[in-house]
Amino acid sequence: MEILGKNVAEWGIAIKQKQWFIPDTLSVGLSNHLIDLLNKVLPENLYQPRLEIDDGMLGVMYGNGFHFLYNNQANNNLGSDGYDNYQAPTSQGNQLYSRRLWVKGSINFGANIVRASDQLNCIEKIDSVRRLGLSTFVNINRDVTTSTNASVLKEARTLLYTNEPYEFKPMRHSFPNFTFTQEVKLTSSDLLKYSMLTYNMHKIHIDKEHCETVENLPNVIVHGPFMVTLLLYWFRKLYPEASIESINYKNLEPCFVDESFTLASVQKSEYEHNVSIVNVQLGKKYFDGVIKFRQM
Length: 296
Description:
Distance between the termini: 52 Å
Number of helices: 6
GO molecular function: (3R)-hydroxyacyl-[acyl-carrier-protein] dehydratase activity
Radius of gyration: 19 Å
InterPro entries: HotDog_dom_sf (IPR029069), Mitochondrial_HTD2 (IPR052741)
Shape: globular
């Protein structure tokens, strides 16, 4: 434990001195592939037509979780779990942890609307490294701007690194009277498509054998970003005239493929909604967050 702590501390000092520049270009084609996937998994009343190159909707969709399609890792240095190790705790090139989980995040969307072929410049930095027991939390800040330096979004992501296998902890949540709900069920092919669209090779989303034998997970799990996208996209359909300013969220427990779940919301005020992803029958709460609308 002392050696692990020393290695993490040394890595943390060095990694916080770095930053990464990840350029990308806003694409109608890539966004349409995600629309096709969302149209498959959501009911007909939430149908979204494919985008045209000049219809002005591309920038709107970017603010509904479509930003996860862009400015992604290069996948040049994969860890044993399939994900890029460029921001993972290491010592002399060797990974210190066998598992990683996306545990929470926040996104603040700028008021600037982006359009097809706009350049998206992302600067990533490690904000903090915090050890808790045998695990380590890594907080990442991302700042995305256009080629003219107009702010598009500011995002924070927190990843948990651990060598502890998954352990099921039975807990039944109670739930409020939701304002809106929408049931969803994803298949393994849906997760594979989302992994391909977001250049995400993390095995916990696509490799059941890895999940069972290495991570003690009973099945592959839904991506954290996919759940954020589903909620933001659903909210735009519920409130088409509103502009989403921000979302803050936590991933509370794994959401396994082929397990039905419900997108749910409770309106707190005119501009603020509590959102969650739950399975009421099982008493499970996978995701908890707050969406705020921009005050017009």
